[in-house]
Amino acid sequence: xxxxxxGLNPSVVSQALSSCGSERTVNIGIQVHxxxxxxxxxxxxxxxxxxMSFYSKCGQLDCAYEVFDEMxxxxxxxxxxxxxxxxxxxxxDGCLELYNRMRNSTIKPNDFTFTSLLSACMxxxxxxxxxxxxxxxxxxxxxxxxxxxxxxxxxxxxxxxVKEALHIFxxxxxxxxxxxxxxxxxYALHGLALQAIxxxxxxxxxxxxxxxxxxxxxxxxxxxxxxxxxxxxxFNSMVEFRVEPEMDHYSCMVDLLGRAGDIKGTRDFIKKxxxxxxxxxxxSLLSACRLHGNVWIGIEAAERRIALEPECxxxxxxxxxxxxxxxxxxxxxxxxxxxxxxxxxxDPGYSWVEIGNEVHIFRVEYGxxxxxxxxxxxxxxxxxxxxxxxxxxEIYEVxxxxxxxxxxxx
Length: 410
Fold this sequence. Notes:
Blueprint: H1 10-23, H2 26-39, H3 45-57, H4 61-70, H5 76-88, H6 92-104, H7 111-124, H8 127-139, H9 146-158, H10 162-171, H11 177-189, H12 193-205, H13 212-225, H14 228-236, H15 247-259, H16 263-271, H17 279-292, H18 295-308, H19 313-325, H20 329-342, E1 350-355, E2 358-363, H21 372-388, H22 403-409
Antiparallel strand pairs: 1-2
Helix pairs in contact: 1-2, 1-3, 2-3, 3-4, 3-5, 4-5, 5-6, 5-7, 6-7, 7-8, 7-9, 8-9, 9-10, 9-11, 10-11, 11-12, 11-13, 12-13, 13-14, 13-15, 14-15, 15-16, 15-17, 16-17, 17-18, 18-19, 19-20
């Protein structure tokens, strides 16, 4: 278009950047960025916002922020776009800092600003900050907006407060399919299968047609609660609602059947799938084999998963342990050599807790600092408490250089 002398305008450049962001075509997007500079459209607020969105979608948040920082004029779309970029990276502090800067400017946030803030809180599990954002939304009158209410349901569910999520859901005057799906997914996340199923039945009786996401929530809840018959019923009923099962639905069923101990039946189910199983499916079967001690099918699942995800250190270690348990030392050595040749290393584990709106992260390789004695003493007490209730830990032979893991499993 540019070579043929046809008139370029900011709208065309913005649309080109939007397409590059959707397709993740970084090189072409950078060329469009250069064209925007050459034509002088970079100062246009719509082009600037499209550039930020493009770089954010392509994982280059630093470049997105640089564009934002250099914008001569910003509107609510500009601020919301950069906040969304930080939210996609789960950088809650960055989101809230930008939001505070926005409030101190002449620009007022809109409903999409709040959905982005809630998305960041939900992804990082920071309930306190999510509640603060909820209060801000109420003060500005955005809490009644449908998509903000849906975001609130997801945020409270994923941050552990499913009761508040239900309160918001029941208080909504208007609900769409996303509202029902968000609440069903919240129940599934907390293993509340009966509530998820009841809500599904309420939804269908209200005349709403479930979609693939609805069934994924129901199947996930059945998986967590080990409701095999119910899971099979809802999986088979998908065709009645003209919903074609996808890979995620099959993965849920594999996990459900595997956890129930029907390892051979689970493998047969995988073989009958209408498409090639992915690494998640084989990983679900592998976990079931590890749980129920089926070594040979576990070896098959691990080998299949490594073929699809050759850099997965955890699968390599499980395969090594399987081979060692049956005395296949030549295969044990082969996988060990494969790990050395590939430079496969385990990712250090970590956990976090939110105290007073501050998130404290505990990483395996760094220990717990000055809190080590207090944390390990409390952990010992919890383990003793669980044992008094008859809990027997599942011990997996996964290598770790951190003594705390071994102590818990003793």
